[in-house]
Amino acid sequence: EQGHIVLGFPGLAMGDPDEPTLDVLCSILGGQAGRLFESIRERRGLAYQIGANAGEHADGGHLVVYAAASQDKLDAAHEAILAELDAFVAEPASKAELTRAKRWLLGQFESGMQRRSRVASRLVFGTAYELGADHYLRYPERVDAVDRERLAALAKRLLDPRRRVTVLVRAP
Q1: How far apart are CA 52 and CA 54, in angstroms?
Q2: CB 15 within 8 A of CB 60
Q3: For a pLDDT cut of 90, what percent of the chain falls above it?
């Protein structure tokens, strides 16, 4: 009987210049080497699963932090996640975290570009959203341009507690 935590924030519209910065933010927070995983799951043992992801859409997007935890640890996990997000806004990333996140994203990009279906979808999205058919080809340079200052500014903008929606799912 797992409990679930979902923290949602307004994100970015497709084509926003900060899309790569948001990818870096999610990579640093989520994933198996991310801050949330290391702190909440590995060190404290408060969640079975935890991560952060974002989706960009035509008029806006979302940023979501998700965790699954046992019922007896749900409140502690929720409080710990909020504390980690506050800490991230206060100090978004070390140089090592930023470098690791960028390398991972660029590796994922290169791996994905080996598939014709991925290339085709990127061409279609770039054209459909008037970003240019070759928009996806500039992703590596856009990721490489992300620095700690841009990351800090985006974290402050998106991880605003006043804009957060929280859902806790408990067993009856």
Answers
A1: 7
A2: no
A3: 72
Strand-pairing partners, residue 10, are 62
Number of residues that this document lists for the chain: 172
Give the whole-angstrom CA distance, residue 115 versus residue 110: 10
Six-digit token string for 123:
């061409």
In the structure encoding, which two tokens stand for residue 145, read together?
């341009």
130: left (phi over 0), alpha (psi -120 to 50) or beta: left
Amino acid at 98: L
Q: Tell whether pTM > 0.85.
A: yes
Q: In what order do the strands lie in the sheet with 62-70?
A: 49-55, 62-70, 2-10, 165-169
Evaluate whether 144 touches 11 at the Cβ level (below 8 Å): no
In this predicted model, what pLDDT tens digit does every residue of 56-111 receive, in sequence order? Answer: 888 889 999 999 999 999 999 999 999 999 999 998 799 999 999 999 999 988 88
> Pairing state of beta strands 62-70 and 49-55?
antiparallel
